[in-house]
Amino acid sequence: xxxxxxxxxxxxxxxxxxxxxxxxxxxxxxxxxxxxxxxxxxxxxxxxxxxxxxxxxxxxxxxxxxxxxxxxxxxxxxxxxxxxxxxxxxxxxxxxxxxxxxxxxxxxxxxxxxxxxxxxxxxxxxxxxxxxxxxxxxxxxxxxxxxxxxxxxxxxxxxxxxxxxxxxxxxxxxxxxxxxxx
Length: 182
Hints:
Blueprint: E1 3-4, E2 9-14, H1 20-33, H2 45-57, E3 62-66, E4 72-80, E5 90-97, H3 106-120, E6 125-131, H4 136-144, E7 148-159, E8 162-172
Parallel strand pairs: 5-6
Antiparallel strand pairs: 1-2, 2-3, 3-4, 4-5, 6-8, 7-8
């Protein structure tokens, strides 16, 4: 799944265990410097590996974007929205891009690929739980990929010395709610 720009090729592929140090570094930077994640301390590499294994064991996709040299530019995955069985057709997405890879179209490649994977797996709704109502790049990315705004949880978190909202957006997958799942 290449995307060629004048100066680079971005490739998408399934994540591997070898990607975990780069994934942990990207996520760690986001935890330390951003408000997209509500974690306060970056998880260790072993914890990120455990989380990836749990996602894969649940049958969910976990993909990465790399440049032509194989450097990891970003990653995306889905997980169960909630654990109770009635939620089994809804997934929550997560997308993180390396700090020096922003505004290069990485997210615009990862999210549609994730949507396609989830539709093929029979999921019916994707939910974006976006940290920080000022996170306009993520909100814009999701809107461009067909997500609609469905709510804000105001001041639900405290991070970096300020209250942080959570923005909720949803996107139907496949036939969405128009038919019963099989």
